[in-house]
């Protein structure tokens, strides 16, 4: 079974530029999550999708971050414009339903973003 | 938002030593506790999902226990090997199926 795919793996941009990250979850997984992991901190949930609908985006900085999952499969996370403090690893995860406490979230390898 | 804490922040052990880490989480409205292993440049790998007070789970040389009444979980590694070197993350699940992670314990096993 193929895992969660993410691209690019690394990205370096200058502040005020825009950047987009792509995620393809495990086939058949209804729920998709984006996390931000800043160096020295644990991953923080940015947004959760159930199929193509947003379940929770309460921690997404909506003035500069946006995410979509138009067909309920792959997803894109965008930052526009980027700030220095956005330097982090952006992790995508998926789970089968997302409605059971027993369910495992499967993570991709992440995109490492450096904003200069 | 759930406040999850892990200790120690980092740990160096000799190959063959056994070791353990602690994860503390809010004991009220508990749903589940997840443990992950994250090796550099790889995907975080799920180790355990624990839901019941007193639960003990084992995977090879790694095991974990759960105390939901006092809000802590221990992860044990028996006979550490260099390939166990990684960051070990725990996360508490809220009622909306969102995970709140600790900052992790970075383990280095010295050959």
Structural summary, described in words:
The complex is a heterodimer of chains A (116) and B (111). By secondary structure, chain A is mostly beta strands. Chain A contains no helices and eleven strands. In chain A, strand 5 (44-50) and strand 6 form a beta hairpin. Chain B has strands at 5-7, 10-14, 19-24, 32-38, 45-50, 56-59, 62-67, 72-77, 86-93, 99-101, 105-110. In chain B, the strands form two sheets. In chain B, strands 2, 4, 5, 9, 10 and 11 form a six-stranded mixed β-sheet that branches. Chain B has a five-stranded antiparallel β-sheet with strand order 1-3-8-7-6, with no helix packed on it. Chain B is globular, with a radius of gyration of 13 Å. The termini of chain B are far apart. Classes of the chains: A mainly beta (116), B mainly beta (111). The interface between A and B is medium-sized, with 28 and 25 residues.
Backbone CA Rg of chain B = 13 Å
Low-confidence parts of chain A lasting 5 or more residues at pLDDT below 50? none
Structural class of the helices, strands and pairings of chain B?
mainly beta
The helix fraction of chain A, in percent, is: under 10%
What is the H-and-E element order of chain A? EEEEEEEEEEE
What is the N-to-C succession of helices and strands of chain B?
A: EEEEEEEEEEE
List keywords for this structure.
heterodimer; A: 116 residues; mainly beta; globular; B: 111 residues; 6-stranded mixed β-sheet
Summarize the structure.
With 116 residues, chain A is mainly β. Helices cover 0% and strands 47% of the residues of chain A.
Chain-wise SSE layout:
The complex is a heterodimer of chains A (116) and B (111).
Chain A: E1 5-7, E2 10-13, E3 19-24, E4 31-37, E5 44-50, E6 53-56, E7 65-68, E8 75-79, E9 88-95, E10 106-107, E11 111-115
Chain B: E1 5-7, E2 10-14, E3 19-24, E4 32-38, E5 45-50, E6 56-59, E7 62-67, E8 72-77, E9 86-93, E10 99-101, E11 105-110
Parallel strand pairs in B: 2-11
Antiparallel strand pairs in B: 1-3, 3-8, 4-5, 4-9, 6-7, 7-8, 9-10, 9-11
């Amino acid at each position: 079974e193929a895992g969660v795919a993410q691209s690019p793996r690394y990205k370096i941009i200058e502040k005020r530029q825009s950047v987009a990250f792509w995620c393809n979850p495990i086939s058949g997984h209804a729920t998709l999550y984006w996390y931000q992991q800043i160096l020295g901190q644990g991953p923080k949930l940015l947004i959760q999708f159930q199929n193509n609908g947003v379940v929770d985006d309460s921690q997404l900085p909506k003035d500069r971050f946006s995410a979509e999952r138009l067909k309920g499969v792959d997803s894109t996370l965008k930052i526009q414009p980027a700030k220095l403090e956005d330097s982090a690893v952006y992790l995508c995860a998926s789970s089968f339903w997302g409605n059971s406490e027993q369910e495992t979230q499967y993570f991709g390898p992440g995109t490492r973003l450096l904003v200069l | 938002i759930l406040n999850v804490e892990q200790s120690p922040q980092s740990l160096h052990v000799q190959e063959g030593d056994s070791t353990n880490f602690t994860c503390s989480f809010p004991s009220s409205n508990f749903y589940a506790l997840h443990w992950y292993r994250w090796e550099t440049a790889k995907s975080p790998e799920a180790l355990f999902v624990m839901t019941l007070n007193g639960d003990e789970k084992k995977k090879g040389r790694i095991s974990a226990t759960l105390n939901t009444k006092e809000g802590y979980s221990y992860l044990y590694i028996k006979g550490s090997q260099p390939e166990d070197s990684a960051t070990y993350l725990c996360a508490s699940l809220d009622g909306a199926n969102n995970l709140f992670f600790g900052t992790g314990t970075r383990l280095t096993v010295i050959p």
